Amino acid sequence: MSKISMFFVLFLTLLKLEASELPKLPDLKLSGQGITTSGLSSGAFMAIQLQVIHSDIFAGTASFAGGIFGCADGDVNKARTLCMQKPHEIDSEKYIEVAKKLEKTNKISALSNLVQKPIYIFAGTKDSVVRLEGAYRIKEFMDHFSANTVIKTDLASEHGFPTINQGQKCDKRGEPWIQNCHFDGAGELLKVLYGNLKAPTKEASELNILSFSQKEFSSLTNFLYDEGYLYVPSNCRQTDNSHCRLHIAFHGCVQGPEYSQDIFPKTAGYNRWAEENDIVILYPSAKTGGMNLKGCWDWFGYSGKSYLTNEGAQVKAIMKMVDRLVK
């Protein structure tokens, strides 16, 4: 093969590689008001952490099968036992004091920002992974700081995200952790966080689910997956998107794209509400690595000792994504 031919083969290969690269997270210039979070399991712990750490930025959060802020104390074994299986033994006052100490050292925002912030808390009565009592510990924590909590603990569901008609049987445990419970978990949480919303009139188009590269936000310590997802409603693809709000939805362990591709973004039920109400949904993704064997979000310290503060590796990465999307 001549040198010229070899050059063109190399050139075409590079073009192909470049074309296959995922696009960057777009700068949509969304409203900086009404930024909220939610999550399932490890994602729920992460959503609660973000709300407490950056309570000046986040306007509300929702927890599905999660637990109280700081529960694991940076110990994976404590996370598995006390936080997940024995939350009835948790002393909520201890973690209220943990938050107050972090506030005094400016490692989290002022806890007074939590006053009247909407907090939606869900736990299934048959959850065998994160026991139901964890929901009450979250409520005790948030009530102490005068947040506006709404709690639902009367659905006979196993560990997973409840939907109207997607996933496996409501009382069945296992991947992809999406459950057909005849209950619109995403709709209920969004109504609590945003107040009056327009009811969906149709299913959201899968064409509005965009994949983007998380590489620019990743580091050796934050364990982000290469790919994340974004749902952008039709009315939020304009020059002026200041009327559109941002919600961040965190998947659970063994539920990110490393395991289930885009099942969580497509079937959890957020998008149909987002389309009708001009809410952009960010679906960031974590991956396995180090002490994180199941692609969980970091609520037990695998990314470093500062995981529970504004210097946490994953916290900083998510906030960079927020900065990209809003004004």
- Number of separate domains: 1
The count of β-strands is 11
Summed up, the helix count is: 10
By oligomeric state, this entry counts as single chain
Distance between the termini: 53 Å
Could you report the average pLDDT, rounded to the nearest whole number?
A: 93
Which series of helices and strands comes N to C?
HEHEHHEHEEEEHEEEHHHEH
Largest sheet: 8 strands, mixed
- Which spans of ≥5 residues are poorly predicted at pLDDT below 50? 1-19
Rg measurement, Å:
20 Å
The helix/strand class is alpha/beta
User: Which outline best applies?
Assistant: globular
- Indicate the proportion of strand residues: 15-25%
**Strand ordering within the main sheet:** 4-3-2-1-10-11-9-8
Level of helix content?
Answer: 25-40%
Brief description of this entry?
The protein is an alpha/beta fold and 327 residues long. The chain has helices spanning 3-20, 42-53, 76-83, 92-104, 133-144, 185-194, 257-260, 263-267, 270-277, 313-325, and strands spanning 35-40, 58-64, 118-122, 148-152, 161-163, 168-169, 178-180, 209-213, 227-231, 245-250, 279-283. It has one domain.
Write the layout of secondary structure elements.
Blueprint (H helix, E strand, L loop, with lengths): L2 H18 L14 E6 L1 H12 L4 E7 L11 H8 L8 H13 L13 E5 L10 H12 L3 E5 L8 E3 L4 E2 L8 E3 L4 H10 L14 E5 L13 E5 L13 E6 L6 H4 L2 H5 L2 H8 L1 E5 L29 H13 L2
Parallel strand pairs: 1-2, 1-10, 2-3, 3-4, 5-7, 6-7, 10-11
Antiparallel strand pairs: 8-9, 9-11
Helix pairs in contact: 4-5
